[in-house]
Amino acid sequence: MPRQLTMNRAVVLLSGGLDSATTLYAAKEKGYECSCITFDYGQRHRREIASAKKIAKLSGCDIHVQKIAFPWKGSSLLDESKRIRETHHTQKGVIPLTYVSGRNIVFLSLALSYAEVVHARAIFIGANVMDYSGYPDCRPEFLQSFEAMAASGTKCGVEGKKIKIVAPLVRKTKADIVRLAVKLGVPIKHTWSCYEGKRRPCGKCDSCYYRAHGFKEAGVVDPALFT
Amino acid sequence: MPRQLTMNRAVVLLSGGLDSATTLYAAKEKGYECSCITFDYGQRHRREIASAKKIAKLSGCDIHVQKIAFPWKGSSLLDESKRIRETHHTQKGVIPLTYVSGRNIVFLSLALSYAEVVHARAIFIGANVMDYSGYPDCRPEFLQSFEAMAASGTKCGVEGKKIKIVAPLVRKTKADIVRLAVKLGVPIKHTWSCYEGKRRPCGKCDSCYYRAHGFKEAGVVDPALFT
């Protein structure tokens, strides 16, 4: 937990993947003093938490690991008895089995509570709707709706000090995100995207697919493949 | 976790206080099959969880106790080094020190995730703006805003199966709530309202104040005083 309050603080949702790491560096570039929050929510790719911690450390930001169970499961990301669907990226318009009900709503709600207490003015999230899995809680209309709800349901909001929800990558392609990550000096080799969470990225899940696609299109070799 | 899915399921936020218990019985009267959720969030009146469990059992409903930390605190309800403010009920228009940043937002978000997985159509909450402590996240405009955000950020919402946020007590006075609780057969003596969470209600905090006021105005003796 940060001790000092500044006028320009942001809470950053840092999963440890490429998008959230790039979002953190984008927030820092905008001059925000960032406090990161990451979630230990029973995900099978729990190893992303170690990536988040490493990236926060390298960026000089504090990080809080928030435990939060989704015991009702309902997602292949939370249930090892289910298979991660490997072919979703060919089925546009279908929300895949990896969808976790209310995940970003819960994560943003906790980030909001944290942000209000530390007097942060913004919450940064790496949501993206270009090369993504079709999750409803990544769309700009959802993020706007969350911001309005947050203004209505918090003390700071009703007092006119609204907390902004900022998604700097929301309309970028994965290739653009790769280029931005390189430009901002994101420690890409420490990011983790694969849903399977094994020793090496599986190369088959949606997350691996979009990542590989982005690096290829940007003409950049993914340094995480050589760690 | 409930095993059977019904067409008329609701998730009920049951804190163990008078309002949430009455809300549960109101949901049951409307024909909903209810699954309760209660939160262990570091509150000093943690004993309300035992009340919630007892009330759920008496009502024949299942209950899930969800652990969720607010490690950033920022509220006298979460921080035993702070005093519960005893005189707020005389200061209308001031949000008191017992305000927990984003509490109902976090609770509703988790209830929403649960509700979507068990195919519930509604979430019931005992929010009230008549005899209350001025919390922004109890107001009807907030609840409407949450419902809209939930429709935008969930799979069921974008597929047109919106989950309703229902607050049957929102405009009732505490005396009306007492009368309704009596009428619906709520096991009032098992409810717990006091913020202090000691062996007996303190009789001084906002919650005790509003409760005593409601019973007096309704002309009903509070059975919890004799347990």
List keywords for this structure.
7 helices; homodimer; 227 residues; Rossmann fold; five-stranded parallel β-sheet; globular; 36% helix
Task: Give a written overview of the molecule.
The structure is a homodimer of 227-residue chains. Chain A starts with 8 loop residues before the first strand and ends in a 9-residue tail after the last helix. Chain A has one domain: Rossmann fold, CATH 3.40.50. A five-stranded parallel β-sheet of chain A has the order 3-2-1-4-5, sandwiched between helices. Chain A contains seven helices and five strands, in the order βαβαβαβααβαα. The radius of gyration of chain A is 17 Å and the shape is globular. The first copy, chain A, is α/β, with parallel strands linked by helices and 227 residues long. Chains A and B meet through strand 3, helix 3, helix 4 and helix 5 of A and strand 3, helix 3, helix 4 and helix 5 of B.
